[in-house]
Amino acid sequence: MDQLKLIFKRNLWNENQVLRQILGICSILAVTNLMINTLVMGLGLIFVISFSSLTISLLRSFIPHRVRMITQVFIIAAFVILVDITIQAQLPEVSRALGPYVGLIITNCIIMGRAEAFAQKNPPLLAMADGFLAGVGYTLVILFISFIRELLGFGTILGFNVNFAGFETWTIMVMPPAAFFIIGLMVWAASAMQLSRQQTQKPAPPASSVGQQASR
Amino acid sequence: MGTPAAIHPIVILLAAIFTSNMVLANFLGMCPFISVSNEYKTASGLGKAVSLVMLVTTILNWFLYHYVIAPLGLEYLRFILFIVVIAASVQIIEMALDRYLPELHVKLGIFLPLITVNCSILGISLFMVIRDYTALQTVFFGLGSGLGWWLAICALAAIREKIARNKLPIGLGGPGITFIITGIMALAFIGFAGTLMIQ
Amino acid sequence: MKKEYIYSVVFVFLLSAVLTTILAGANAFFLPQIERNEELAQKRAVLYVLNIPFQTDADVEQAFAEQIRTASVDGIDLFVQYDQSQVTTGYAVPFQGSGLWGLIRGYMGLSSDLDGLLGVEFTEHNETPGLGSRIDEEWYKEQYRNIPIEDGQPVLTDDDGDRKIDSITGATSTSNAVIDIIGRSASNAVETLEGEL
Description:
The structure holds three protein chains of three kinds. Chain A is mostly helical. Chain A has helices at 2-14, 26-29, 35-58, 68-90, 92-98, 109-117, 124-154, 171-174, 176-200, 208-214; strands spanning 156-157, 160-161. Chain A is globular, with a radius of gyration of 18 Å. Chain B has one domain. Helix content of chain B is 71%, strand content 0%. In chain B, helix 1 (9-19) runs parallel beside helix 8, helix 3 (40-72) packs across helix 4 and helix 4 (78-100) crosses helix 5 (102-108). The longest helix of chain B has 33 residues, at 40-72. Chain B is globular. By secondary structure, chain C is α+β, with helices and mostly antiparallel strands. Chain C has helices at 2-49, 57-67, 138-142, 172-196, and strands at 68-73, 76-82, 88-98, 103-111, 116-124, 147-150, 153-154. In chain C, helix 1 (2-49) crosses helix 2 (57-67). The chains are: A mainly alpha, B mainly alpha, C alpha+beta. The interface between A and C is medium-sized, with 28 and 27 residues.
């Protein structure tokens, strides 16, 4: 149980894949201008990362070392294709908006990263929990980005109009540079908080850090 | 009623380099873009390697798609097949460089394995399929995307070298400021948009 | 050493065989639904450009069964709208052309006497997400509602020569391309259909 708690804290805050490790930026930033697209991509990623971690961990004693990269890519790609087919069948509108970006979940470095760093050395359920939480930590961050972009760029939240009188939407929020600015500021805030905490107290960060991330 | 896919290859080349740059407009290939851009020389090496692999893999994937995947109705497997082509090409390019151009291999060698998981490589193969490019358009698209990526990472690395000794607010150094520079670069590249006319 | 090599090859082969089987199964399972989605999307587009209101999928099917018939003119497959007394009230004609990034396909609605553009809908395009792809948004498409067609050309500019269609900020190239495609395709369609009437 302690180990699970450790994984929880690490993935959501201490080593948050986006804010700390700067991984997996590629495939999802482009779809952060609307929250609904971001949510679908995030859920897709959580599904893929959980099950590929589980599968890789289950097979870990059979996978020959020399072909482990290609094996991991195969397994990840298979789950991504499953997600892609499902989205096409169940959510055709979203599938049209996401275009090729669903396929790019394959090359999201986070999934390979968790497979390499955790899943191939740990028991299946723990690996699955690790993958799941890494995915959740990631999804929270990109949802926050898309929240800002959709609110300021379109004046809506998840498609609901929250425009108040006289608010002029910011075109820049819809365009790519906004995503870079927001993520840059978030990375800055996250590392500034970490640094100031390290200065005040040397031991490991307190448990409250998890709560802070969840409330963002 | 309008000729399909009539965009001139040169327009595709320029659009891929400037207006719809892989990194700055489509966010593809971000991870190495942020992490390998603190030194100009290394960045340029990676840029060259990425350009080479992009050009080779898009062309291979074009033939794979139009002569194998589409006729056999295997569209749903294209992600896996493209990735296999990319992984295999990277391996072959690495061995070929080692054998025939050992000097270049020393320079680019360390980057090649990283490239397999560079999203932009798979990304352009997927874009090429979705946009229905002809073989010629694909060559120019692959070339342009590679050059665009190279240009972007060199520009970023040069800026980062310039500001390396500047004092920054606590926590902003490293990735934080890199993202913000990238954002400003992306804004600048949008400025190219009006310069390209279609047809 | 040799044994390990064979094991690796066999492992990768087996793994890909298993994965491919699973994926082929999933594909076969979902394919009918994916095809049905595509068909529905086409029908929705046709109803939208003819300005026929609909809410649910059942509405779409009902309106299609009651009012729409397919026809073929000069090798172009189009949809013809009839009213209750079987009089033609409009046409939905497919169009396509090059956008910034590739083909833009869609349907346009034309009035029965070919003097008005009733609406447009895009069924397929590859414009940049968040920029050019905003041509899919309601406010943009609604600008093409009920545009008069004079001398076989849709009137997309007002008397001062200003455009009636607002461009999408940051996506000037896509906006220009779309106006160009619609203008050209509409006059082509009018020419083709006039010969048949």
